[in-house]
Amino acid sequence: VQDKIVSFINEVRFSIFEPYLLMQARRKYEESYQRTDEQPLVSVYTPTYNRANVLVERAVSSVLSQNYKNFEYIIIGDCCTDETEKLIKEINDPRIRFYNLPNRKRRYPDDGDNVINHWLAGPVVAANTALQMVKGKWIARLDDWVNWTPNHIEDLLLYAQNNNYEFVTGATEDHLGRKSVGEYAIGPYFKIYSPPKRNNVNVVIGPTQTFFYRSYLNCFKYNINCWRKSWNKNNDNDLLVRFFKAGVRMGYLDKIVARTIPRPGETHFNYEAFMNRLEEKKKHFAFRQK
User: Model pTM greater than 0.85?
Assistant: First the structure.
C-alpha cells in the first residue's frame, strides 16, 4: 500500500511540476540552441561501482576515441572501493573528472526478492550527482560496460541540432551482430496507449547507452523511488516516460552508435544478466551501513 501511495504522489508531482520546469528551461536556454554550426561542449557521464577494469577498457576507452573532441567526461563512483580512482588518475586526461561518493548507505529494500532493486534503482544517486556537475550544453549517458562507436557524439549531436530535438537516441549492436532499435513510446512496452496531452508523436526510444540530450533537461532527476512502481520500474524507463509525458521533443537516429558485449563472466544483458547471477549481484551491490 505504501508503495502505491508514494508512486501516486510522485506521479502527480511529476505531471504538474516537470512540464512547468521544461517550459521555464526553454524560455531561459532554448534560444542558445538555434545555431547548428557550432561544436558545443558535451558532458558525458558514467555512474559506476567497483568495475574498474571494464570501465577503463570499454567506456573510458571509447570516449577518448571519439572523433568529436570537445567533451568533458564525468565518472561518478558509487563509493567505489576497488582501483577505479587509481586507474582513472593514471590516464591523466584533463577532460576526465572523477568523483567518488562518500558512502553507500541503504537507499531502498534489498533483502530477499528486493535484490532486484539494485538493478532498478542502483545507479540513481550516482547519476543524479553527475547531472548536478555537468558544464556542457549537451549531455550523453554511457554505462561502464558499453563501447561507443567513434562517431557516437558527432552523429547524435548533428542529428539533434539539425532537427531541433531536445532528446535523441540511436541503435546499438551486440556481440552477435544483433541490432537493438529500442521501443515505441506509445505502445505495450512503456504501457502508454494513447498520446499524452503534451506529446502526440510516437517516437522510437533507443537503449540507455544512446541517451543524448540538451543539458537544461537535467531538471528531470532520476527517481530513487522508481522501484515502488508497478510498471516502468527501472530508473531509465521512469525517466523516459516523464520526458515524453512532459512534452520533450524526442527523436530517433536509425544508426548504430554503440556496441554491447556482456560483462566478463556473463552471457546476457541487463535484467537477464542480473537474474542469472543473483547471489553474486547481491554480494556485489550490498549496502554498507557505515
Answer: yes
